[in-house]
Write a structure and sequence with these properties.
alpha/beta; Oxidized Rhodanese, domain 1; 8 helices; globular; transferase
């Protein structure tokens, strides 16, 4: 679900009355994604099964809890795309691998040796499922889109992300 907003500067409105063309060309439409928790409050669905426009499989809290209790090699990779500072302050979901989206967006495009050197773990296999999460679900979706552009075929998102995980008292690894 996306909310569209129009941001206008009052000086643009005044100049629009005098010179409509240049002022209107400065008009910006901004698309603001709603977070998982906002969608829940509004009673909106976040599931990809109920939202056909969603291109990613959507995981629920219970699904992630099952992944945490499995051996990491058996299931999909759980990828935390928050920044290392966020992990240091709050912890992470157990068995998750940290690949920060904001400071290192091209990480999944690195050669395996470069990736290993940077992160001290093997680069995820392109044919294995990756389940992305962040704090509120926004960076997770962006990271999944980016991973697809790098050739990863099975990308999923946990829209509730770490905020929901903490609210529901999921186990946390420090």
């Amino acid at each position: 679900m996306f909310v569209r907003s129009i941001r206008l500067n009052s000086s643009l409105l005044l100049s629009a009355a005098k010179k409509p063309q240049p002022a209107l060309s400065k008009l910006r439409l901004t698309t603001l994604p709603t977070t998982y928790m906002q969608q829940q409050k509004m009673g909106q669905s976040t599931s990809s099964e109920q939202n056909p426009s969603s291109q990613f499989k959507s995981y629920k809290y219970e699904d992630i809890l099952k992944l945490v209790n499995e051996e990491p090699e058996q299931g999909p990779y759980l990828i935390d795309v928050r920044e290392p500072k966020e992990l240091a302050e709050l912890g992470k979901i157990p068995n998750a691998l940290n690949i920060p989206y904001k400071t290192a967006p091209g990480s999944l495009d690195l050669k395996p040796a470069e990736f290993q050197e940077l992160y001290s773990f093997e680069k995820p296999d392109e044919n294995k499922e990756l389940v992305f999460y962040c704090a509120a679900g926004i960076r997770a979706r962006a990271a999944a889109e980016l991973a697809q552009s790098f050739g990863y075929k099975h990308c999923s998102v946990y829209p509730g992300s770490f905020n929901e995980w903490m609210i529901r008292d999921g186990p946390i690894e420090k």
